[in-house]
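Working notes for the structural subgroup meeting. M.R. asked for a predicted model of this chain before we commit to crystallization trials. I am recording the input and output together here so anyone reviewing the notebook later can reproduce the run.

Input as submitted:
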Amino acid sequence: MENLRLNVSLLRRRVPNLTSAAKSVGLRPATVSNLCTGKIPIGRSEVRTLVALASLAQCSLDELILRGESV
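Returned structure, recorded in token form:
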């Protein structure tokens, strides 16, 4: 399995109030926070969560999900 992770810096730059923005599109702030910190692996998150985050940041899923780079 590739090392997948969220492009957190892109998210934070594009969506300043990430938790409240997430809440406004029906995502649980705790889930978003755990994805950002790596507590929840990207591979275990729901596709609709990732799609919602990408639309909040106005980016593609390819931009949102970083592959194979070590942290």
